[in-house]
Amino acid sequence: MVKLTFPRELRLLTPFDFSYVFQESIRAGSPFLTLVTRKNTLAHPRLGFAIAKKQVKRAHERNRIKRLTKEYFRHYQHQLPNLDFILMAKQPVIGLTNQQLVDTLDQLCQRIITKQMV
Q1: Where are the beta strands (DSSP E) in 9-114?
Q2: Of 25, 30, 2, 22, whose CA–CA distance to 106 is shortest?
Q3: Which of 17, 23, 27, 112 can bridge 12 by disulfide, Cβ–Cβ 3.0-4.6 Å?
Q4: Phi, psi at residue 50, to the nearest 5°?
Q5: DSSP one-letter code for 93
C-alpha cells in the first residue's frame, strides 16, 4: 500500500534548498501561479512555497493556496519525478475557486514533467 502522507522529508525548508532551486530552474507559469523546479538527488520530490504578502495580502488566502497545493502534492507525490518544486502565487489567484486552483496546478505540473522529458 502506498502512503499518502506529507512528512518533513517532502518539504523544502532551508534557505539553501530554495536558493539551489532558483539557481538553474525550469519554470512553468500561468496568470495565477508560477512553478519553479529543479532536479534533486533524492528518491522523492519536495515542495516549497514562496508566496509574497505583496501578492496575496490576506493570510487566510495564502493558507488556502498552501493547503490545496499540499493536498495535491500529497496525492500525486508518487507520480511526480524527483524534482524540487517551489510554488509562487500572483495576485489574481485569490479570484480562483478551489477546483480552478487545483486544475491550474495540475496543468503546470504536467508542463514541467513534459519539459523534463525533453
Answers
A1: 26-29, 33-39, 46-49, 83-89
A2: 30
A3: 17
A4: -135, 75
A5: G
Count of CB atoms situated within 10 Å of the CB of 13: 11
Are 116 and 83 in contact by the 8 Å Cβ rule? The answer is: yes
Cβ-contact 87, 69 below 8 angstroms: yes
**CA neighbor of 81 nearest in space, from 113, 105, 107, 108:** 113
Residues in a beta bridge with 33: 89
57's grid cell: 495580502
Q: Strand 33-39 to strand 46-49: parallel, antiparallel, or no bridges (unpaired)?
A: unpaired
Residue 93, number of CB atoms within 10 A of its CB? 22
Going residue by residue through the chain, which has 118 residues, state the pLDDT in tens, using 9 for 90 and above. Answer: 677 888 888 999 999 999 999 998 999 999 999 999 999 998 889 999 999 999 999 999 999 999 999 999 999 988 889 999 999 999 999 999 999 999 999 999 999 988 877 6
For residue 30, which of 96, 82, 84 has the smallest C-alpha distance?
A: 96
Cell numbers linked to 103: 486544475
